[in-house]
Every structure is written in C-alpha cells, then in structure tokens.
Design goal:
The complex is a heterodimer of chains A (370) and B (328). With 370 residues, chain A is an alpha/beta fold. The two termini of chain A are 26 Å apart. Chain B is α+β, with helices and mostly antiparallel strands. Chain B folds into two domains: 109 residues, PurM-like, N-terminal domain (60s Ribosomal Protein L30, Chain: A); 165 residues, PurM-like C-terminal domain (Phosphoribosyl-aminoimidazole Synthetase, Chain A, domain 2), CATH 3.90.650. In chain B, 30% of the residues lie in helices and 24% in strands. Chain B has eight helices and 14 strands. In chain B, the strands form three sheets. Chain B has a seven-stranded mixed β-sheet. Chain B has a five-stranded mixed β-sheet with strand order 1-2-7-5-6, covered by helices on one side. Chain B has a two-stranded antiparallel ribbon with strand order 3-4. The longest helix of chain B has 18 residues. Chain B is globular. The chains are: A alpha/beta (370), B alpha+beta (328). Chains A and B meet through helix 1 and helix 3 of A and helix 1, strand 13 and strand 14 of B.
C-alpha cells in the first residue's frame, strides 16, 4: 500500500518527526496536545503516529470531537421511544447511532412497533428520499453532527419545508465545536499545552471562532488536515507557538480551509437553525453549544411534532466513563471497562461504538505494549 | 430472548466466539476442534463444506456458481489437499428465472473444469417466495492430502507471502449492489488457487485463503497459534488502484476486505525467494509479494503488528463488526 501523496511519504514523515523532536527538546515542561476531532484520533492511531509522537516527547489527548459519542443517552432514548412506540415510523440514522447502548438498549436491538423500522442511511439526502417515496410512513431523520454535517441537515429542513413534506421530520443532535473547548479550558481540569483543531469543521466555520482560545486563554493551536503529514505539520506549529510564546490560530490545512470558512454553508445554517444550550455527554449543559430548528420549522422538528420530552440529565450507563474520555480527563485504557466488559462487539459506551470514538480507536489500532 | 444477529456471519471475532461457544460443544471431536478450512480424515482425505448466499447472485468477475466451486476448492488447497470431488446443494426460491439458473449451472460447470474437480452428488430444494433469496448453494469437497499445515512450526525470520492484491471481491460486490453510490472499474478476484498446491512441497508451512475478515483477521488467527509475533509492512501490500481509491474515499481498511482468489502463506526465509518467484510465474500470482515476517524481536507471541507507511507500529485486531453481509 504505497502512499497516494507526499502527506504519507515515509521520508517526509520521518523528517517532520525529527523536527518535532528537535523543537520538543528545547522545551522544559511536558507537551500535551488535544486533538479535538475524532477523525484526527483515528488517523493518529491508524498510522501508528501515537507511539512515534510519544518517542518525540509529545503526548496526544483525545477531545470531544465525536458527534455520536457526545450525544447524551436521553436523545438516543427519545429516538428509541419513537420507533418502538409509534406505528409506521421509519427512524433513519447513521449506522453508528444504531449501536449506542442506553438503559433501554440500542436502536439496533430494539423491537420496532408495527410497521416501524430503523433504517441506516449514509447521508441526510437518503432520509428525505425515503419520506418522498413512502408517503404512508412517518420518516424521522435522527440527524447528528458538528458544523461539517449541519449544513446538509439544514438543507433537508429547507427542502422539506419547500416541498411541504408532511411525513418528514428531524430529531436533531447538532453540536458546535468551539463552545466545549471553552468549557474544557474554563473547568481547568485538563492539563493541555495546545489544540489541534478539526479540518472539516474549520472548512465551514473558518479560523476566527478559535481566536478566543489564543487571545483570552493563551493556548496555541493549529487547524490540521487528515493525512499523517497534515497532523505533524499542525503539531509542529503548536510547538513553534509554545517556543515563541506567541499563541495564535495557525492554519496548516490551507488546501481546504479558508480563513473565513464557507459563508454560504453558514448562511444556510443561520437561515434554518438557532442556537440552544445543549447538554453534552461528559460536559453537561454548555451555553449556546447546540443548534435546533427555528420555531417556524416546528412541523419538521421531531421533538415538537411528537411532543418528545428530552430532559438534559446525561443518563449514562452506570460505570461508563465515556464522559471522562470525551473531556480528555482519562485515556481510554484508564477506564476499568476498556477492552474487558466494553469491546467493539459488546460496547458499553458510545466511544466504543463510533468509528471516531476514542475507545474504539484505541482498541482497534492499539500500540504494541512496550 | 437472545436472537441470531447478522454479525455472527461476518467471519470476524463474533463468529469465532459463536462457533467456539455453540457449535463446538455440541459436536466436539478431534477433527472439528481444529476449526480448519478442511478436516484431514483417515486415509489421506481432506473434507470441507461451505454455503454461499452472496447478494447479488451475479457480480463483476463472477456469480454465485463460480464462487461456490472456487470457495470450496480453495479451502481444500490451503488445507494441503488437492481438490477432487464436490457435492452441489441448491436451495432455490420459487420464482427464480430459469435463465438465471442455467447461467449459474454453466458457470459451475466451467469453474469445476478449471479447478479439476467433478461434481458427483447433489440435492435440490425449492422454498416459497420470500423464504429465501433467489438461490443459495452449498458445496462440500473432498481432496487428497498432499501436506499437513504446521502453524506451530513457524520460526523467526520466516516470510509471509501474499499471492495478490486485496479487496477486489468486496469492492465488486459493493459496486454491484450500488451501495454508497460507488461505481468502480473492478472485478471480483474469484478464482481457483490450485496453482498453489505444488508450493506445499517447496516449503510452505501454513496457508490460508483470504475471505471474510480479510488479511488482518486471518493473520491474527495464525498469530494466535504461532509461537512468535508476526509483523507486516503496509508499504509492501499490493493494492489495485481501484481498491486503494475506494478505501481512501470510504474510509474502509483494505486489510479487512474479502478476496475469493488470494492466499497468504508462511515460508522459511531461505525458501521464500524461490516460492515467491514460482507464484509470480502464474497469472493469478503476478502481483505476489513478501509482505512481512515472523518476528523474533518486536512484540509478543500472539500479536500481529503492522509497520505503517508512515513508519509507525500498531497492533492489528481481528474484524469485530460486520462490514458487508452476504459477501460470499
């Protein structure tokens, strides 16, 4: 399997790692960088960078960037309640969402009401197509995502409203990336030296929303892409910022991320959605950290359409430490359930379910024990 | 009440646990306990069986008939046996087009001739519409033992040889189903591996065909039996352009994709170059490569390690959850 481009070239990687080690040697305090995005966690482990970075003196900490993981159980349970309690209801959602364990079981194991079913879709468009072709069913799209996915979910709401598609609604779990970073910094419980900001989210929001982290909190950071070389460039930039004592928001993913992001996508989000105080697994309620459909779209908002009562209380299964993993408090192997009670084929928490979940990534792409 | 889930058929860890916990205790005996692709019986005979439920029944590069012959033939070859006789069990759904059945039977005849096996017994059943999906096939195979695989005899320095590129079968099925809206210029690698038989005499210690679970899952099974850890090099693993592109696009790991005409073998270091050269002479082995070795210095016994293209080292786990149901 030869690399497709220079961002995976072994010589380029080795040279970048050497530079990282050299910069690191000039610093006295420990370097711990939080990779906010689950896809970064996956890349770092899949390419074996975790061990190489540790050898260079840089510790990587996983952050809250897995939408399936941070969606608290009460929303998953509301989805379960819909498909088991209402007849002729199609609950369409992404595959990972169907395997999240709750006190009421998972969507995958649920027994739907008569004529109802859980349908795995690969894109929001598929869910609206289902509603168009099955007028006799109520299609509920259980849509989850960060700023990367939110514009396409917003577009579904817009299309449904324009078509007056009465049998379509969205049960939304839409999350914004900057607010939890603020919450993590303000809690002060996690020792970090800087951030690796997500590439795809930043392609939408640009770099300005992270400025407060450098300006008000004094933490360096860099937006990075998803190839090994991208990630190492981001880390190198963070080290440079630490050394120079000049924290900022560097953009090391300029081939995709513009400083002002994608204004068209953001305009669509602003047109259909409004901010809400959202409850995150592990982090609790964070002001203005989520989005919901505007009141004018209530007919397409599953929560109001079906009178769902979703109380923010983060009903984790007892003993599950996904919340601590998500705020970077512990690494997955520090959870007593990790790879014992909680495994990919019998997950106990969502971080062992999602392809971007830190626990699954640690389990699947584990580093060899020394 | 617990029910059978699709995951039990994935070829991954769930399936192995299920077999070990449910099937083995019911029938436990010496032959079955090895859970090999084929069992060696008294009289130098090897015996195997396999059922085929692939969806769709026709796909680029093959169909369920060709698959049903080659899959069973290959299980015998990698168990150290020359395939001789097959049985053919057909389960047909009411309403199946006769033209489709004719096409499948022709394909079975061609594949059997190519693999040098004769179909000597069979059975046909028809089930009501909706109680099956067009056609399911079971084939059992008998072969003559030419060698006994010795996974416990692998030694540090032994080389791991892969006979060709990974994942074309999975990708062909994906394409044929229209999943993910993917269209790829790819054909299933479905083929008989009888050309590998002579290499048992050239020093091959262990061989497996790469089906469900992919290369990684199959090598973790060897790692569990071998007295030393195994290490493979990402850069040495041959991949077609289509599979590499699709894997990158979909985030699928080719190490876990299924093939139907590829094998992985372990050969002592001194004989590896000659075996590799021999395999490469055959059209089906043109892209064969040494992809790794049994290792004496890195890792611990039982481990399968991957040296990534970036130079990192990580553990490979067996496949746990289903990638694609009904792939064979």
């Amino acid at each position: 399997m030869r690399p497709m481009n220079g961002f995976r070239d072994k010589r380029v990687i080795a040279a970048l790692l050497e530079k990282i080690a050299e910069r690191r040697r000039g610093l006295t305090s420990p370097v711990r960088i939080m990779e906010v995005c689950g896809t970064h966690t996956m890349t770092i482990h899949r390419h074996g960078l975790k061990g190489l970075l540790e050898a260079a003196g840089v510790e990587m900490v996983s952050g809250p960037g897995c939408p399936v993981c941070i969606t608290p159980n009460e929303i998953h349970e509301a989805a379960l309640g819909l498909v088991t309690g209402r007849e002729n209801t199609v609950l369409a959602t992404f595959g990972d969402m169907t395997r999240v364990p709750t006190r009421r079981g998972s969507l995958q194991a649920a027994v739907p009401a008569r004529g109802s079913e859980v349908k795995v879709v690969y894109s929001p468009e598929e869910s609206i197509a289902l509603a168009r072709k099955s007028p006799g069913k109520d299609v509920v799209f259980f849509g989850v995502g960060f700023e990367t996915t939110i514009p396409s979910i917003a577009f579904m709401a817009k299309s449904a409203a324009a078509e007056r598609l009465a049998n379509y609604s969205i049960l939304s779990a839409l999350w914004l990336i900057p607010p939890p970073l603020k919450a993590i910094l303000e809690s002060g419980e996690v020792r970090i030296s800087g951030f690796l900001y997500p590439g795809h989210v930043s392609a939408i929001i640009g770099t300005a929303p992270y400025e407060f982290i450098a300006r008000d909190h004094g933490f360096p950071g860099a937006v990075a892409g998803f190839e090994p070389g991208d990630i190492l460039l981001g880390i190198l930039s963070v080290l440079d910022q630490i050394r120079e004592g000049k924290p900022r928001v560097a953009n090391e993913y300029t081939r995709v991320v513009r400083q002002d992001g994608n204004p068209v996508a953001r305009a669509l989000m602003a047109e259909m959605l409004e901010p809400m105080d959202a409850c995150w697994r592990g982090l609790g309620v964070i002001p203005a950290s989520g989005l919901k459909l505007k009141p004018a779209l209530a007919a397409f908002d599953a929560e109001s359409k079906y009178g769902l009562r979703i109380e923010p209380r983060s009903a984790d299964l007892p003993g599950c430490r996904c919340g601590d993993v998500l705020r970077g408090l512990i690494a997955p192997p520090e959870c007593p359930l990790f790879s014992r009670t909680c495994k990919p084929d019998s997950p106990y928490g969502p971080c062992m379910v999602s392809f971007e979940g830190a626990c699954l990534v640690y389990h699947k792409y584990g580093a060899p024990r020394p | 009440m617990s029910r059978i889930s699709l995951e039990l058929g994935s070829g991954g860890k769930s399936m192995r646990d299920f077999i070990a916990g449910k099937i083995l205790p019911a029938f436990g005996n010496r032959e079955l306990a090895g859970l090999l692709d084929a069992s060696h019986l008294p009289g130098g005979i090897a015996f195997t069986t396999d059922s085929y439920v692939v969806d769709p029944i026709f796909f680029p590069g093959g169909d369920i008939g060709k698959l049903a012959v080659n899959g069973t033939v290959n299980d015998l070859v990698v168990s150290g046996a020359a395939p001789r006789f097959l049985s053919l069990g057909l389960i047909l759904e009411e309403g199946l087009e006769e033209a489709d059945l004719d096409r499948i039977l022709r394909s079975i005849r061609t594949a059997a001739a190519a693999a040098g096996v004769r179909i000597v017994t069979g059975d046909t059943k028809v089930v009501r519409q909706g109680q099956g999906d067009k056609i399911y096939i079971n084939t059992s195979g008998i072969g003559k033992v030419v060698a006994v695989p010795r996974p416990r005899s692998v030694r540090p320095g032994d080389r791991i040889i892969l006979t060709g590129t990974l994942g074309e079968h999975s990708l062909a099925i994906l394409t044929a189903r229209g999943d993910f809206g993917i269209e790829a210029p790819v054909r299933s690698d479905c083929a008989p591996l009888i050309f590998l038989l002579p290499f048992w005499k050239s020093g091959v210690l262990w061989m497996r065909d790469i089906t469900r679970g992919g290369l990684a899952t199959i090598l973790t099974e060897l790692a569990e039996q071998a007295p030393h850890p195994l290490i493979i090099e990402e850069e040495s693993i041959p991949l077609s352009r289509a599979v590499r592109a699709a894997a990158d696009l979909l985030g699928i790991d080719p190490l876990y994709l299924a093939c139907e005409g590829r094998a992985v073998a372990v050969v002592p270091e001194k004989k590896a170059a000659a075996v590799l050269a021999g395999i490469r002479k055959h059209p089906l082995g043109r892209r064969a490569a040494i992809i790794g070795r049994v290792d004496g210095t890195t890792g611990r016994p039982g481990e399968l390690l991957l040296r990534t293209a970036s130079g990192g080292l990580r553990l490979l786990e067996p496949l746990t959850s289903e990638l694609l149901p009904r792939i064979c």
